[in-house]
Amino acid sequence: MPKTMFEKIWESHLVSEEPGKPALLYIDLHLVHEVTSPQAFDSLRMSKRAVRRPDLTVATVDHNVPTTDRSKPIADQISKKQIELLGKNAKDFGLTYYDIHSPNQGIVHIIGPEQGWTQPGKTIVCGDSHTSTHGAFGALAFGIGTSEVEHVLATQCLIQTKPKTMEVRAKGALPKGVTAKDLILNIIGQLGVDGGTGYVIEYTGEAIRSLSMEGRMTVCNMSIECGARAGMVAPDEKAFVYLKGRPHSPQGAGFDKAVEQWKKLPTDPGAKYDRVVEIDCASMTPFVTWGTNPGMVVKVTDKVPSVESFKTDADRRAAQRALEYMGLKAGTPIQDIPIDYVFIGSCTNSRMEDLRAAAAIVKGKKKSPKVQAIVVPGSAIVKKQAEAEGLHKIFTDAGFEWREAGCSMCLAMNPDVLKPGQRCASTSNRNFEGRQGAGGRTHLVSPQMAAAAGIAGHFVDVRSWN
Amino acid sequence: MQPFVKHTGLVAALDRVNVDTDQIIPKQFLKRVERTGFGEFLFFDWRYLPDGKPSPQFELNDPAYKGATILVAGRNFGCGSSREHAPWALNQYGFLAIICSSYADIFRNNCYQNGMVPVILPEETVAQIMANAKKKNGYRITVDLGKKQVYDNQSLKASFDIEEFRRHCLMNGLDDIGLTLKNEDKISIYEKKRWPELSGKK
Ligand code: SF4
Q1: At the fourth CATH level, which superfamily is domain B6-175?
Q2: Which residues numbered 155-194 in B keep a CB inside 8 Å of some CB on A?
Q3: Residue ranges per domain, chain B?
Q4: In angstroms, rounded to a whole number, what is the distance separating the alpha carbons of residues A17 and B56?
Q5: Which of A109, A406, A418, B78 could form a disulfide with A436 if both were Cys (CB 3.0 to 4.6 A apart)?
Q6: Contacts with A150 from chain B: Cβ below 8 Å
Q7: What DSSP string describes A235-250?
Q8: Contact criterion met (CB below 8 Å) for A85 and A40
Q9: What interface predicted TM-score (ipTM) does this complex get?
Q10: Is the pTM of this model over 0.80?
Q11: A318/B16 CB distance under 8 A
Q12: Which chain B residues contact residue A155 at CB under 8 A?
């Protein structure tokens, strides 16, 4: 029987499957960060258990780390404690660990692929909902809670109910100036923030195939924002080229052997998904969120929607609350909205391609004097590469700050925080109330759109940028 | 884990859709490395004004909901981040069960891990419970996991679905790790098939 890629990976990882029970699934790679792991290690110690497969467990610090001068001690004592604790846990349990000073440190979802840990066909988990990022390589990757982190540490397995499958078919090519970020914002807008609940999404179609691996990661990254358990893309030559020669990719003849296996992963012709959704890419524009969840999104050429345009009473109340929180009036053209802050970073958009695209927009220009702008590379390696290409100069010449790698203002657990009422054009993935700081207002956009807004001081349609 | 068999308690209504885990427990409290003490920070940014006083606008601050153990909320509750701090906070605040028409997947899993029951009911039934709870006259319901039913002492009686495995674990207070470790032989066999070189190590 023809099978979907999801089914192939699922079935090859079944340790035990009994009727009427969730499956016991083997996990090939467990990524760990400082925020969702301390309690798991704690319980592990209390029950005198070891980490079953330290060789399949990789840890780094990203959520809390300051993005300013790292030679100075960390000022926030609670963050410091959490960061140090991960170091201790990694050492005690014998895990691979990229500490704050490691040349390989970075956001967990950036460094997995960068180091070659992420590979097609693997099951990958992390105590973080954006683990879906790794699905770009044809892996089954999803976020778990802290109890499940402990479960994987102790058993290298997870008890999982089989999700349903959804194909999201991106038809046509993305127009110029329209990015992977716009594509996924559009998909979330169309499906709604719970449209993917219970499903693993496989993205297919011309637009997906033409995306680089980095763009595919951006798309898969935000799968969770429509509620999907995971997002995935069939691996192809682009994925193989990306992985070749990475430190933890298979090496030498082993790589070619792995590629042979990886080529068997894509969904067989005729395989059935539980649901199929088609997305038209040719008519797509850059998108900007106006509200307090990623599904509250409109075209850059649109206006802030009115409360009455929502169908149900609950949605009208949610829209009303969102407008109030965001300090926006229905009917305001998106491009008339002034901004105070630009954040270019996060596991959604902080890879080389994102930084290059943003730099191309700001090159030779100056940021609006009313705006503060920070650029936070996703990893120390991205930072180094960007500097080798002179991107940091382009940013700093334009008045954008150039920072050290980490999650930074994506969730503002470190000192990079919006002040109440400040409005930010952000390349991150969540515009929830208070996400970037209590009272802060977040608009999700592509790196190009964020960069252009930083120069203009308000949103602009990047398609007409010159 | 505390077993959950049947519970009758006061219902608090949070009539909002898509309540995300960033609201349930804001990030500033994720720096704690303990598993306890999150209850006082539940819904922090909604619950307290910038000066630290309880916000009179926020539903759960209503004295009528004091001592509530069951939360009824709008659809897609617990969306967003995977933080288990969210169910910890709800549980430690005093909630033992949640009633909703849908949940985000990770949040629902996290509830199971902490002995809290995420009951799923049809929108109309949730709306009925919500309306009753919003009258704020001490509306109580029973969540009966044994019978897979929710009822009050008036006219409400609704059945709900829950995976048999999850129900069994909740009712017996079983934790997943203990169960999985009983499959140790199967895990070892699987590993040796995948990585023959591991033979003899484990
Ligand atoms: S960058 Fe943001 S979304 Fe990504 S892992 Fe860090 S905090 Fe989470």
Answers
A1: Aconitase, domain 4 (3.20.19.10)
A2: 163-165, 175-177, 179-181, 183, 186-187, 190-191, 194
A3: 6-175
A4: 51
A5: A418
A6: 177
A7: --HHHHHHHTT-TTS-
A8: no
A9: 0.95
A10: yes
A11: yes
A12: 177, 180-181, 187
